[in-house]
Specification:
By secondary structure, this protein is an all-alpha fold. The chain has one domain: Na+/H+ antiporter like fold (Up-down Bundle). It is built from 14 helices and no strands.
């Protein structure tokens, strides 16, 4: 898994940032519009609906919203941002920090990690966590936050863009098919399985190509560190507490907590660009949180006694 991310990083260095961003954009678009919806439909159609269909999204929603609140409490008065980066464009930096702290890479990295650690059966945890909670919150609350701190009029973006997310339509179809016990034809199962199998390597490659860094990073560490601590440490702790609170089955607690421990999402780069937030600062957080997740994820696995 790390090797594919490294290939993406090396490919970015070889091609140059401009060309790499163009390729990554097309790659991410293909995953977003074709491969991920196929995987979501395949997983949810075959998943048996139960209380876990509600428990996992509830845990995810609590994790995201409480991390948003924690970030606002730390950075809301703008003093830390002004002290570290000066008084200019505080709102744009605040918006980027809030998105980076609350919305993790739950699909692009979560699905590959859960698949490798727990097996393909755990993919439904990532799908429920992201598609039934995090993504709807991103395109409603997240969009409102980005619009408040950035430029709300840009590119016609609005919470209604939630209706334009292909994977959410796939999730709805999958849940309806599962609830009505509809039979999945063999030919469709093979197609969805084939398309879904491409998600993991393409997502990892896209993550690697999205990582970038700026000079002078050491000065920004005190500003970035609380965001990374919220994303990599506080969110999984909230996920664990909430899982216990909703009486999550024992075998699902570890996958849910590991899912909550993902680094900041790559998709946030698009939202930062659209709303004129500090995209460079956000990209820096994605890069550092992804790198540090190589240490934090093993910590959570050891704490949860994951073999």
């Amino acid at each position: 898994m790390a090797c594919i991310i490294l290939i993406g990083v090396l490919w970015r260095l070889y091609l140059g940032a401009k060309v790499a961003d163009i390729i990554r954009s097309h790659l991410a678009k293909s995953v977003y519009e074709i491969f991920l919806p196929a995987l979501v439909l395949h997983v949810l159609w075959q998943a048996e609906l139960s209380l876990n269909t509600v428990r996992i999204p509830v845990v995810a929603a609590l994790s995201v919203l409480l991390c948003l609140l924690a970030t606002f409490l730390i950075y809301g008065n703008g003093l830390l941002i002004k002290k570290m980066l000066g008084p200019n464009a505080v709102g744009k930096k605040m918006g980027a920090l809030m998105l980076a702290a609350a919305f993790g890479n739950f699909s692009y990295l979560g699905i590959p990690v859960l698949t490798q650690v727990f097996g393909s059966w755990s993919q439904f945890v990532a799908v429920h966590f992201d598609m039934l909670a995090s993504t709807p919150l991103l395109f409603t609350v997240g969009i409102l936050v980005a619009g408040h701190y950035g430029k709300a009029e840009s590119a016609g973006a609005s919470p209604f863009e939630l209706l334009k997310v292909p994977a959410l339509w796939a999730a709805a179809l999958g849940l309806i098919a599962s609830a009505n016990h509809l039979f999945m034809p063999d030919w469709l199962e093979k197609i969805l399985s084939l398309l879904g199998s491409a998600v993991v390597p393409l997502m990892l490659l896209s993550v690697g190509m999205a990582l970038r860094w700026r000079a002078g990073w050491f000065v920004r560490i005190p500003l970035i560190f609380p965001v990374i601590a919220i994303q990599l440490m506080l969110m999984p702790l909230i996920a664990w507490t909430a899982s216990v609170g909703v009486r999550m089955p024992e075998n699902l607690i570890a996958p849910v907590v590991i899912e909550g421990a993902m680094p900041s999402m790559v998709l946030g780069l698009v939202i930062c660009d659209r709303f004129k937030l500090d995209t460079a600062l956000y990209a820096e957080i994605v890069t550092l949180s992804t790198a540090l997740s190589l240490l934090s994820l093993p910590f959570w696995m050891a704490w949860l006694h994951v073999a």
